[in-house]
Amino acid sequence: MSTIAFDRDALASPLPAAVSDRLRTAGFEQPEDSWRMLGQIDARLSPLGVGDTVDLVPALVEAAGSSLQPDRALISLHALITRSDDGQIPALMDLLAAPSESRDALLTILSASPYLTTTLVQDVGFLLGTFAGDAWRTLQPAEDLDAALTGMLDGVSTPDEAMKPLRTFKQQAYLRIAVCDLMRQSGTPAVLERLTDVADLCLQAAHDVCGAKLQARHGRPMLEGSRPSGFAVIGMGKLGGRDLNFSSDIDLLYVYDVTNGRTEKDGTSTYEYYPKLARAITDLISRLTPDGQVFRVDLRLRPEGRAGDIANSIEGYRWHYEIQGQAWQRQALLKARHSAGCREVGERFLDTIQPFVFYPALDQPLILEDINHMRERIAKALIERGSGDYHVKLGKGGIREIEFIAQGFQLVYGGFQGWPWERGTRRMLAALAEKGYLSDEEASDLDEAYLFLRDLENRIQMTSGHQTHEIPREHGAQAVLAGMMGLSGPTPQVRQAGPGRMLEAYGKHTARVHQIYDRVFHSAM
């Protein structure tokens, strides 16, 4: 593109045919729209004296053209440049004017994820702080994330005041994680753990700010003997397993120590107090505001589901699981982990339910039959809605089948043999190979498939920020996804071949997973 004159007069004129052809060759599918946006970018830059149009416009075209989706990238660049403050433009153009790894990282986001691009457009200062140097190359340690959130919440005293900083923190932290992931600066296991760390920190902050407001009104909840009462947030599902998705719901249980505690100021019972705290935390985390949500919260795993109490005492949970507990609840509780709030209460809850989760009953083989029936119901539902072949999570050979293999063995043999409580799917697969229930080859194939599928799932969700698990059907969207997976290159020709490579790898992994799933479940029943 550098051989074409992008002077001001040319940009103010109708699109020349030769330039249109060059733009199409570079991967721009809407050259007329691209030409119009380039003219508007030039009109924004020229009064600021940040550079010559002859140099800057070709640089922007080159940057967008080498990205995963040139048209989308140019739209994002147009939004950034036209909405940035005058004082930010010079540093932004310094970042964009010459090829660099930092520019590639930024353009990967701008071309692939409208959802994440919004975070950058809304805070160009954050963009420059992330991409002008090397900050995008590393995952922030949990301690640094904690410090950053503490700084954002400095001076915050109510849940309403915490709404915006919590959402900003989550969006910015997830963007940094996404860049590290897409640019292969960190491995998938570390990425999933860091996503989980962000959720834990947000929940702890919500617990603290909501608890402070309730205590100001009611006083501290206390037990007999002037001992403080306690409340914990239990992570379930992928949050509990410390392998959270990029756009997961967070599955939670709320638990407190006893029902007969009282608050110091007005004598409110803990039975009344802690449901108020649970509702306040849920609202702060999940309320949809102009700044979005922190996380969608799912509380359906609690006793009695939506009809049950939002928070229960440890004894209440024990009674329910011993008297009314079902096999699916045992399976779900395999992932239970203290996520926020009082650690002592969380650990006491886990100690209390462990005998129920790992109950060494004589009818354990029926557990595998129950799990397989659940898998068959899922498969039937997917077939009815026509999404089975492309559903990364629930489709044949998908993530759920790998999880069911790991969970099935835990439930069948964990109680009898006193296995340690393992919440992570990959670590459980390795343990099953050590114990001889999976061959080394099976465990390795399942682990490789799990990482591939989780990569694919996260990239699907990065694009829109929605909790979706299906590979898109449209070829162009598949090409972008393949590029995010590292299965296609920067030229239009190579991008076209990406979907085929991606679907071939997907088919290979899912076929192998389902083969092992059949071997495990059908040989055991």
Q: What would you note in describing this structure?
A:
The protein is mainly α and 525 residues long. The mean pLDDT is 90. Strands 3, 4, 6, 7 and 8 form a five-stranded mixed beta sheet that branches. Strand 1 (221-223) and strand 2 form a beta hairpin. The longest helix is centred in the C-terminal third of the chain and has 33 residues, at 492-524. 63% of the residues lie in helices and 6% in strands.
Properties at a glance:
525 residues, mainly alpha, five-stranded mixed beta sheet, three-stranded antiparallel beta sheet, 23 helices, 8 strands, 6% strand, flat
- Class by helix and strand content? mainly alpha
Percentage of residues in strands: 5-15%
Proportion of helical residues: 55-70%
User: What kind of sheet is the major sheet?
Assistant: 5 strands, mixed
Q: Which descriptor suits the 3D outline?
A: flat
Radius of gyration: 26 Å
State the low-pLDDT regions, or none. Answer: none
Structure annotation, total helices: 23
Question: Quick check: average pLDDT?
Answer: 90
How many β strands by DSSP?
A: 8
How far from one another are the termini? Answer: 64 Å
Question: Brief description of this entry?
Answer:
With 525 residues, this protein is mainly α. 63% of the residues lie in helices and 6% in strands.
Please give the structural blueprint.
Elements: H1 8-11, H2 17-25, H3 31-45, H4 53-65, H5 70-83, H6 89-97, H7 101-112, H8 114-122, H9 124-131, H10 142-152, H11 159-182, H12 188-218, E1 221-223, E2 227-228, E3 231-236, H13 237-240, E4 250-256, E5 262-263, H14 270-286, E6 297-298, E7 311-313, H15 314-324, H16 327-333, E8 337-341, H17 343-357, H18 365-385, H19 399-417, H20 425-435, H21 440-464, H22 475-484, H23 492-524
